[in-house]
Amino acid sequence: MATTPNKPAAAGKPATGKQKQQGFVYLPLIAGWLIPGAGHFIVRKPIRGTLIAVSIISMFALGLAMQGKLYTGAQDILEMLGVAGDLGNGLLYFLGRAAGWGGQPVQTTVADYGTKFIVVAGLLNIIAAVDAHNLRTGRKS
Amino acid sequence: MHPSHFFAVVLFALFASTVFGITMRDTPPKMFRYGAYCFVLFVGSVIVFSWVMFLIAR
Predict the structure, then answer these.
(1) Domain residue ranges of chain A, discontinuous segments joined by +
(2) Is the pTM of this model over 0.90?
(3) Which chain B residues touch A120 with a CB distance below 8 Å?
(4) B18 neighbourhood in chain A, CB within 8 Å
(5) Cα dihedral sign for A118, A120, A122, A125?
(6) What is the number of CB-based contacts under 8 A between chain A and chain B?
(7) What percent of chain B has pLDDT over 70?
(8) Which of A55, A108, A131 sits opposite B15 (nearest CB)?
(9) What CA–CA distance (Å, rounded) separates A115 from A29?
(10) CA atoms within 13 A of residue A120's CA, in its CB half-sphere
(11) Is A127–B19 a contact, with Cβ atoms under 8 angstroms apart?
């Protein structure tokens, strides 16, 4: 078949990559952090966004259902890391803090798993938000 | 909610593998393959290490 006259592939990033960089390029990153999957919806990847939202919100909800703890204070280095991981959940974390969700002291093994579910959901959300940013800048197709 | 430890692992592996697959690969077939690969590694390593710990404890 006939090829198009412009050669975007040979020049590295396609011409649309330049167009994509117009506007506020950090919007998918920030939106994806605040609301899981929102970054991918902004870059018009709704299926990816839905799968990410379902995965992260489910992990967060399951963590709470298992009586997992939401880290609140930074008393020592492990607590600080826990807060950093939990903060990755964006608005879910702030909502949980405001509503007083989560078990306070971890008393069972399953509750400890729940705490890890919440932290890992936050870390995965950060990865997803960075991925949305990469899609926005054209670094990833 | 008090799932069994294994069921908790399966849920964890399912959701983590989904996000890994989407974020680490470019095309849907590769995403699916990498997600399945991560899921098998998660669950498989849990089974292997569980048996190792069981045998050590005996």
Answers:
(1) 24-137
(2) no
(3) 12, 16
(4) 51-52, 55
(5) negative
(6) 56
(7) 100
(8) A55
(9) 25
(10) 23
(11) yes
